[in-house]
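DM from R.C. (forwarded with permission)

"hey, sorry to bug you on a friday — could you get me a structure for this? deadline for the figure draft is monday and I only need the backbone to look sensible"
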Amino acid sequence: MSLETLRQQFPWPDERPPKRIEDKDHHGWLHDNTAAMLRKVGVGCGLILELGTWTGKTARFLCDAFPGAHVITIDHYRGSLEHQGAHHDAIRPHLYDICAYRTWAYQERVTLVKADTVAGMAVVLSEAVEPDLIYIDASHDPRSCEEDLRCAHDMFPNAKLCGDDYSSHKGTLGQMVERVAAEWGMTCNDIGKQGWYLT
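My reply, with the result:
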């Protein structure tokens, strides 16, 4: 049980997927305040777990920001609720291939786990892989995010926890994180009401 055996379960494609015309307007999102938060909390982290990766923009950022780190991403590649509209119809069936295409140069330092977030975390745990940092950025509705947050804390109690979209859903996501943090005797810190992290 190890990172190596986890990577054997979720190997990269034998060949780089082709560049898709559908990808031209969907480069992903990483707010400046979230990037600042990740630069702050990621210092010294050798293994980072990212919940929700879309097309891999944040995974690539983390590799560049922390050259010694390995990033495990967990995503089912079906898109979240906010991605089910017509604007994303062309890209949604091809999310995994687009992510693999865009992240190809980082494949020695990125493991793409194709799974729902909770099931994917369970697989990581079963391989005795212990992340130093967990970045939560999958479904952005407070209920789903709370499930990810609680499961991350339960499965990996020693990992630092952080996430994106503090002000999402009219601020209710941030309110949820504040409530859960207080329940655990922790503090929720935010940068520009965007990126958040627990201490």
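R.C.: lifesaver. The CA atoms of residues 63 and 168 lie 26 Å apart.
me: no worries. Residues 142-155 form the longest helix (14 residues).
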